[in-house]
Amino acid sequence: AQSVTQLGSHVSVSEGALVLLRCNYSSSVPPYLFWYVQYPNQGLQLLLKYTSAATLVKGINGFEAEFKKSETSFHLTKPSAHMRDAAEYFCAVSFFTGFQKLVFGTGTRLLVSP
Amino acid sequence: EAGVAQSPRYKIIEKRQSVAFWCNPISGHATLYWYQQILGQGPKLLIQFQNNGVVDDSQLPKDRFSAERLKGVDSTLKIQPAKLEDSAVYLCASSLESRGEQFFGPGTRLTVL
């Protein structure tokens, strides 16, 4: 069965510091992987996705993620955190049973301090 | 382009009462999803529609939850009767087709007392 594990329910960084949010996946077939962001009282917004093309994926707001098959990882990074990046981030794996099905991780809350 | 609309945004009910949520997807989107997001967890798919037909409701507690998508556009999700453990945010999402990017609405936060 497909699943994702997000290490760390909370990550705290200072403004301007590197952001690293960890995601490991489990999939019996080549996965499609996603990162979503959720701001308070809002729905989820797609940051980026991996669909078996380039292993380094660039997304919106300066975020990027690298697919590493050997490590079954898809960690999200941003070189320099901004206050507006404070939000909940969800990693998700997708598989197809005739239709796309997303399985989400438990989320990581990013806290950014001045 | 208007996004996915959901109402109400907040609802407080007592256990054993009934409640209904409404979702209006992005115009032209054939696929509609309902997710349940319990505090501290990621969203969990409850039901998926392709036009007005159900394609996956394997995780829908059918003894108390029901959903419909009349005319392949708007959708309603109903809980009858509600339990304390149903307290969660209910997210609706839509995609142009079954393999497309899912766009999420703001959600309905349900509190069951």
- What overall form of chain B do the CA principal axes indicate? globular
Ends of chain B: how far apart? 37 Å
How many helix segments of chain A? 0
For the CA atoms, what is the radius of gyration of chain A? Answer: 14 Å
Name the pair of protein chains with the most residues at their interface, and give those residue counts.
A-B, 22 and 26 residues
Question: From the helix content, strand content and strand pairing of chain B, which structural class follows?
Answer: mainly beta
What is the CA-atom radius of gyration of chain B, in angstroms? 13 Å
Helix amount of chain B: under 10%
Point out poorly predicted stretches of chain B: none
Encode the helix/strand succession of chain B as letters.
EEEEEEEEEEE
**pLDDT below 50 for ≥5 consecutive residues: which ranges of chain A?**
none
Structure description:
The complex is a heterodimer of chains A (about 110) and B (about 110). Chain A is built from no helices and 11 strands. Chain A has strands at about 5, 10-15, 20-25, 30-40, 45-50, 55-60, 65-70, 75-80, 85-95, 100-105, 110-114. In chain A, strand 6 and strand 7 form a beta hairpin. Chain B has strands at about 5, 10-15, 20-25, 30-35, 45-50, 55, 65-70, 75-80, 90-95, 105, 110. With about 110 residues, chain B is mainly β. Chain B has no helices and 11 strands. In chain B, a hairpin with a 6-residue loop joins strand 7 (about 65-70) and strand 8. Helices cover about 0% and strands about 50% of the residues of chain B. At the A-B interface, strand 5, strand 9 and strand 10 of A face strand 5 and strand 9 of B.
Describe this protein with a few key phrases.
heterodimer, A: 114 residues, mainly beta, six-stranded mixed beta sheet, five-stranded antiparallel beta sheet, 11 strands, 0% helix, globular, B: 113 residues, seven-stranded mixed beta sheet, four-stranded antiparallel beta sheet
